[in-house]
Amino acid sequence: MSKKSTFTNKLTAKVIVDASNGDVDAMRIIFKNYEGYILFLSKDRLIDEYGNSFTFIDETLRCDLETLLIERTVGFTTKVTELIE
After folding, report:
1. What is the pLDDT of residue 36?
2. How many domains, in total, are found in the chain?
3. In the structure, how many helices (H) and strands (E) does the chain have?
4. How far is CA 1 from CA 4, 20, 22, in A?
5. Please, which residues have CB within 8 angstroms of residue 69's CB and are 6 or more apart in sequence?
6. Element (H, E) at 56
């Protein structure tokens, strides 16, 4: 069974600009948009002494990626900001 994403919304310039200006709701939209990608990048694999493989989410890496997303979003500036406001 193939699992396809039903998420079709794209981030608009207004949401990005609002998030860069500190809007919490806009930041939540951005988090929701990148949530799957962050989890995918946070996956790690562990092999025990018997050769069994386990996949898990590295919580430290996940938190680091989320922090980086916040820093880059808040620090984001562009000429689009002038056009929207």
Report:
1. 93
2. 1
3. 4, 2
4. 10, 39, 41
5. 30, 31, 34, 38
6. strand 53-57
Structure tokens that stand for 52 in this block: 């069994």
Domain membership of residue 70 (yes or no) is yes
Burial zone of 20 (CB within 10 Å; 0-12 exposed, 13-18 middle, 19+ buried): buried
Measured between its terminal Cα atoms, the distance across the chain in Å is: 46
Q: What is the pLDDT of residue 21?
A: 87
Per-residue pLDDT for the chain (85 aa), expressed as one digit of tens each?
455 555 556 788 889 888 988 899 999 999 999 999 999 999 999 999 999 999 999 999 999 999 999 988 888 776 655 555 5
Q: Is residue 62 part of a domain?
A: yes
- Structural domain boundaries, residue 29: 13-75
